[in-house]
Automatic annotation (TrEMBL):
Full-sequence range covered: 132 to 401 of 404
Family stated for the protein in its record: Belongs to the AAA ATPase family.
Subcellular location as annotated: Cytoplasm
A GO biological process held by the record: proteasomal protein catabolic process
Organism of provenance: Halolamina litorea
Role description: ATPase which is responsible for recognizing, binding, unfolding and translocation of substrate proteins into the archaeal 20S proteasome core particle. Is essential for opening the gate of the 20S proteasome via an interaction with its C-terminus, thereby allowing substrate entry and access to the site of proteolysis. Thus, the C-termini of the proteasomal ATPase function like a 'key in a lock' to induce gate opening and therefore regulate proteolysis.
Residue numbers binding ATP: 61-66, 200
Lineage: superkingdom: Archaea
Record comment regarding domains: Consists of three main regions, an N-terminal coiled-coil domain that may assist in substrate recognition, an interdomain involved in PAN hexamerization, and a C-terminal ATPase domain of the AAA type.
Protein name according to UniProt: Proteasome-activating nucleotidase
Gene name of this polypeptide: pan
AAA+ ATPase domain segment(s): 50-189
Broad class of the protein's primary localization: cytoplasm
Length: 270
């Protein structure tokens, strides 16, 4: 069961340079995750405990997973990922055990960064905790909290959680000593989108007429994941047209297509 829900990556390939436009967030992640792993003595000397867990929150596809992977990579830590939804929905009744396993695997792979995606699945405010499904979720969350409460003895393990639904979180997990460092990861602004376009086209054969500043303006409201999708799709348009060079019109068509797909998915179309 362990192997199927836990993703262990001994050297994730994401670097800080792969992340566009999240300077402040990167600084904070480095300070709270990297420093305790690389210079634990600094915290001893100063006489403070590093923050226990950090919580990244913001819309889907904005780089939360990337941030966690990058900090693991840059500190030579293993990256151990689990999704909150899998903890409770995939193996009913196993949630608490999986949480125990998660920390055990982290200890075996120190230094390690534990990344719990969709933390809201095990830690949302409940309206009715009497149903059995909720009781299971509750047990899973209690196990996580108790693992975190014994955290200072854990040495080289840092824990990062992520959610798209910050407003739904149970405040119990945000208390001091738990996920007490909150970092908002918003969608990129226009400058951020331009950087992300540059990052994702690094290996692409892009025509000189392509202006990323202009594309960034056009792709208003796009997330980092959307920008990546535009780049891939633009490449597909070029291939379909039997070209090996990607032109401005390919990027524009890709953005159009992505918007249409989105409208279809969300059912916004008339
Ligand atoms: P979710 O909440 O859906 O899990 P997330 O915030 O964890 O999303 P990521 O998985 O980090 O998002 O991003 C998805 C992909 O989108 C990345 O693999 C990357 O290709 C691209 N991407 C997202 N944000 C950025 C960014 N700031 N810079 C560069 N690429 C980005």
């Amino acid at each position: 069961v362990r192997a199927r829900v836990m993703q262990i990556d001994h050297s994730p390939d994401v670097t800080y340079a792969d992340i566009g436009g999240l300077g402040d967030q990167m600084r904070e992640v480095r300070e709270t995750v990297e420093l305790p792993l690389t210079q634990p003595e600094t915290f001893d000397t100063v006489g403070i405990q590093p923050p226990s867990g950090i919580l990244l929150h913001g819309p889907p596809g904005t780089g939360k997973t990337m941030l966690a992977k990058a900090v693991a990579n840059e500190t030579d830590a293993s990256f151990i990922k689990m999704a909150g939804s899998e903890l409770v929905h995939k193996f009913i009744g196993e949630g608490a055990k999986l949480v125990r396993d998660l920390f055990e695997v982290a200890r075996e792979n120190e230094p390690a960064v534990i990344f719990i995606d969709e933390i809201d699945a095990i830690a949302s405010k409940r309206t009715d905790s009497k149903t059995s499904g909720d009781a299971e979720v509750q047990r899973t969350m209690m196990q996580l909290l108790s693992e975190m409460d014994g955290f200072d003895e854990r040495g080289d393990i840092r824990i990062i959680a992520a959610t798209n639904r910050f407003d739904m979180l149970d405040e119990a997990i945000l208390r001091p000593g738990r996920f007490d460092r909150l970092i908002e990861v918003p969608k990129p602004d226009v400058a951020g989108r331009e950087l992300i376009f540059q990052i994702h086209t690094r290996d692409m054969n892009v025509d000189d007429d392509v202006d990323f500043a202009e594309l960034a303006e056009i792709a208003e409201d796009a997330s980092g994941a959307d920008v990546k999708a535009i780049c891939t799709e633009a490449g597909m348009f070029a291939i379909r047209d039997d070209r090996t060079e990607i032109r401005r019109e390919d990027f524009e068509a890709a953005w159009e297509k992505l918007q249409q797909d989105d409208t279809m998915e969300t059912g916004d179309s008339p």
